[in-house]
Write a structure and sequence with these properties.
By secondary structure, this protein is α+β, with helices and mostly antiparallel strands. About 30% of the residues lie in helices and about 20% in strands. The strands form 10 sheets. The protein has a 4-stranded antiparallel beta sheet with strand order 4-11-8-9, with helices on one face. Helix 5 packs antiparallel against helix 9. The C terminus is likely disordered.
Amino acid sequence: MTAKLKAHPAYKDSGLSWLDRVPEHWEVRRNGRLFTQRKETGFADLPVLEVSLRTGVRVRKFDAAARKQMMSDRSKYKRAAKGDIAYNMMRMWQGAVGVAPEDGLVSPAYVVASPLDGMHARYFSELFRTSAYMGEVDAHSHGIVKDRNRLYWEDFKQIFSLYPPPAEQQAIVRFLDHLDRRVGRYIRAKQRLIKLLDEQKQAVVHHAVTHGLNPNVRRKPSGTKWLEDVPEHWEIIRLKYLITSIEQGWSPQCDAQPAGLDEWGVLKVGCVNRDYFDATQNKKLPVTLSPVPALEVCNGDILVSRANTRELLGLATVVQDVRPRLLLCDKLFRFRPRMQRACDQFLVALLRDKSCREQIETSTNGASDSMQNIGQGVIKNLWIAMPPLAEQCQIVEAIEKETSSLTGAAIRARREIELLREYRTSVITDVVTGKLDVREAAANLPDDLEELDEMPLLDEALEEDDGELTSDELPEEVG
């Protein structure tokens, strides 16, 4: 949809340090000429809003218990009217900004900027989330250390922003809405494919870890409601007899970005969400904190999430090809298989199988569905069916061989999603900074948007399954 877009007819120097040329008919204005600050409290009945680092402002979802706790003191929460821009003072430099979808409450750590006449807030929200603009925000923020910088209203007012004519702002917003729906449709199609591939893979794994490889082997009752009949020579045993002692890590307040290769990082609980260890799911340990070397993860460690949503709780992975200086977080358990008793990959396959998932999901506790917990005892007392060690290794090899094509297809689909996200980011940047002129394209979009309305906006597709991406009110804790 961008192949026919062209540059504007004429450009001029922007006069901005973060941008070279802009369309000749666009203006450059300080934010203080574009917004006023809204500082209203005392609206306790309004819903609570939060900022997602990917999709902007949205209504925060609570279950009954969490909502009751949250309502205990809303006196300091600020009102954001529908169409206002709200940003997290401590995370604006990361793109923690968006347009309020309805009247709601935001944390005292947020700033609410109300647009003046001639403003289309969605345009400015997208501008503020470009990498170049976030660099400018960072330069105007203040704090003791860089990763604790705050952008106060008085500093936000002084930053220059691009100001296209209002009609063109509206055209840009119309075009970006269309872009979001198209990209969202493609991403959802890839996500559905990944889900089907994962279901096929789980079916293969389930049969292998509960039936074995020999279809003619004699079977016996397992003696537990969690397990089906199992091969006669397999042992029914609790997991605690096959593993070393369980430990959990440390969750200090960490910097929001991943650690560099020569820096210490603390793993996020999302490192176990997929069926492989994802070392990129970590946060940088602040230089003001000393690492705990005993918590550094090593190849061969088995990690299990002990705190997460109900669907993600108890997921397991084997640490492989790990880079140095990554620490275990408090929301993860760590243990190893006992030598000569269990194969690490077989244990992980079991832990991710529905026979163990059902045991875990019936043993959770927590104040809300979005944050459930399990104790070490839940993991230790899982009932499992264990073949001899040599047979475990054979089953792992067979699973890998039979599912390699499924795994490869899922990896390709996830990569295509990443490319779609990168494409969207690139197009948005080019459009909101004036490198591409969308006026004609927006004008040619159908007036009857029935077709577009069938394609939902991108919010949920962008969030996917990578864990929470909300912008915390305080410095982020690992998890």
